[in-house]
Amino acid sequence: MDEPEHTDVVVIGMGPGGEYAAGALAEAGMHVTAVEDRLVGGECPYFGCIPSKMMIRAGNLIAETRRVPGLAGTSTVTPDWAPVARRIRDEATDDWNDKVAADRFIGKGGHLVRGHGSITGPGEVTVSALSGSALSGSALSGSAPSGSGPGGERVFRARTGIVINSGTAPAIPPIPGLAGTPYWTNRDIVQAEQAPESMIVLGGGAIGAELAQVFARFGTAVTVIEALPRLVSFEEPEVGELIERIFTREGITVCTSAPAERVSHNGTHFAVHVGMSVHTASRLLVATGRRTDLAALGVAAVGLDAAATVIPTDGWMRAADGVWAIGDVTGKGAFTHMSMYQAGIVVRDILSQGGEPADYRAVPRVTFTDPEIGSVGLTAAAAREAGMRVRTGTAQVPYSARGWIHKAGNDGFIKVVEDADRSVLVGATSVGPYGGEVLSALQVAVRAEVPVATLRNMPYAYPTFYRAIEDALRSLEEAS
Ligand SMILES: Cc1cc2nc3c(=O)[nH]c(=O)nc-3n(C[C@H](O)[C@H](O)[C@H](O)COP(=O)(O)OP(=O)(O)OC[C@H]3O[C@@H](n4cnc5c(N)ncnc54)[C@H](O)[C@@H]3O)c2cc1C
Questions:
Q1: How far apart are the first and last CA of the chain?
Q2: Predicted TM-score of the model (pTM)
Q3: Which of 19, 70, 80, 297 is the most exposed place for a label (fewest CB within 10 A)?
Q4: Would you state the pLDDT for residue 130?
Q5: Other residues' Cβ atoms within 10 Å of the Cβ of residue 410
Q6: Does the CB atom of residue 372 touch ligand 1 within 6 A?
């Protein structure tokens, strides 16, 4: 094997946080070696947030156009997936080619190594060659692990440490018959050239719900199969109930409390068995969560539990001596904004710049269905479980002045959760048009622990959607 190569920091995985941290540390003058086995930028730009939000923008345009009658004249719309597919290919992903991102990092003075990184000792990362890149665009910039070690391995010794940003991959549930069928995950559906004639979506979480609604709007006959009693079950119960009503109204078949028991594929169609029912469709999207593989990362070599699903970290994202972890793998919220937030903390820690450690009290979540679901902090149930005396207040968007004016497409509500003993909000939900944007005021209220009395004693612009926050605060009462 070749002599180890010396560097200051090795970043394993170039998701949004890894890319930011690696670039910032390189710009600060450190010798940074970034290891990436797919595409620089990770899931978000190529398979996640950005392509899915381009689809959603297109689906929402169709829905808005269909709302013209009764408000602004007549309209007809003929959905066409081709411009959506083209935009994702040309504008979002460069045909799943990361040259721009890779060159940007190299331009900052970083060293990019293509391959799979695993920790092989304290401060040591061994990079093995990829058996065959799944994505042609990933081999353009950066160097291959072409050392003389077994299989072309290269060994890096980090003087300062290792930053893990390995992210997550789609979790495939062990449903009999599923393995071996040509199901889709998010990584396939973003590359779809056509909207399928019919599709079953397995899993009614954020990703499943967003994609189900998009494709239904493009004419696909969609069935959502969810094992739990509600869609988006991590949110307040009223959210799942509302989204199910809206999906049903839009022609989506929603099956909740419906664990899939068996899957088969006959060459053209999937069949998913749930109790006595059999659902069939030409496509099956598996959106049943995400998984990590810490054993493949070699975390045991630095004393971490390889059988765990997440890497525990302290407020400075330190996981072990000389090891930091950021992003989905930390289990603090699988969001790009979380990965970037944590990356900023690591950069400050490594560069001894001080500042504040991580604070997870006001993590915002947005599911980009129509209506958008924004939420922050604790649900009422979680606050009660945490031992708080809880009061909740709710305002319905359609009964607010702006919601009433908006009319078609005005579904939604604002719910606030108060720790009654401290008179501060500890959680909030904002469902409705621009629900994710309305959330911003609620996030500040939760994060800064603004007294409810202060929130009540200020004017809310008339007639905005966020003005319904005032109505929700007015209706605060003890939850039973
Ligand atoms: C369909 C979909 C929609 C989403 N929409 C949103 C949204 O609207 N808003 C939002 O905030 N979040 C969204 N997310 C989540 C978001 O994509 C992730 O939270 C985000 O990418 C941050 O992940 P990360 O930084 O942990 O790493 P990732 O983005 O997962 O990247 C990790 C990278 O590390 C590489 N890697 C892993 N192990 C190794 C190794 N051993 N050696 C070398 N390389 C390795 C991986 O191949 C990958 O490229 C969405 C996700 C999906 C799937």
A1: 66
A2: 0.96
A3: 70
A4: 80
A5: 20
A6: no
Which protein residue's CA is at the shortest distance from atom 48 of ligand 1?
Answer: 42
Q: Which long-range contacts (CB under 8 A, 24 or more apart) does 73-77 make?
A: none
DSSP string, 322-387: TEEE-GGGGSS---HHHHHHHHHHHHHHHTT--------TT-EEEE-SSSEEEEEE--HHHHHHTT
Tell me the CA–centroid distance for residue 42 and ligand 1, in Å. Answer: 5
CA-closest candidate to residue 215, choices 85, 75, 335: 85
* Ligand 1 centroid from CA 80, angstroms: 29
Helix (H/G/I), strand (E/B), else coil: 141:
coil
Closest ligand 1 atom, residue 43 Cα: 29
39 lines ligand 1 (CB under 6 A): yes
Residue found by looking up tokens 């009433």 in the block: 404
The pair of three-digit structure tokens given for residue 356, joined into one six-digit string? 């504040």
CA of 409 to the centre of ligand 1 (A): 31
Inter-residue contact 354 to 348 (CB < 8 Å): yes
Nearby residues of 38 by Cβ (< 8 Å), 6 or more positions away? 133, 134, 135, 138
Mean pLDDT, consecutive 10-residue stretches, the chain (480 aa), reads 90 98 98 98 98 98 98 98 98 98 98 98 95 49 56 92 98 98 98 98 98 98 98 98 98 98 98 97 98 98 98 98 98 98 98 97 97 98 98 98 98 98 98 98 98 98 98 82
Q: Separation of 194 CA from ligand 1 center, angstroms?
A: 25
373 lines ligand 1 (CB under 6 A): no
Instruction: Say how far apart CA 128 and CA 114 lie, in whole Å.
Output: 9
How far apart are the CA of 169 and the centre of ligand 1, in A? Answer: 8
Please indicate whether residue 37, judged by its CB atom, sits closer than 6 Å to ligand 1: yes
**Which residue's CA lies nearest to atom 7 of ligand 1?**
49
Parallel, antiparallel or unpaired: strands 390-396 and 372-377? unpaired
